[in-house]
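Objective 1b. Sequence-to-structure analysis of Methyltransferase FkbM domain-containing protein.
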Amino acid sequence: IMNHIVRRQLCFVLFIVCISLFYAESPNKIKQCKHGTFILSDYDVDISEHMRMYGEWAEGELNLFLSLIKPGDIVVDAGANIGAFTVPLAKKVGPNGRVHSFEP
């Protein structure tokens, strides 16, 4: 199990490095926010801008959603945008749960 955890962490670090190199000259910026690491777009004047300024998005709604799910649940995040709810929901359901998110 420990080997699997280390491997996942290394994959995540490699992913962040690759994304950082790819987006270095783009309007998208990687930012550590309250609930995780996100790619925020300079073109998004709503969610990305709010997360850039305050480190979170719709905290009241998110807290409601988090209170309704438990580890191991399967959750659908329809209209996920940049994943402001997806990331904390995935942390809550844990490795035995699933979050299916999509942005139409």
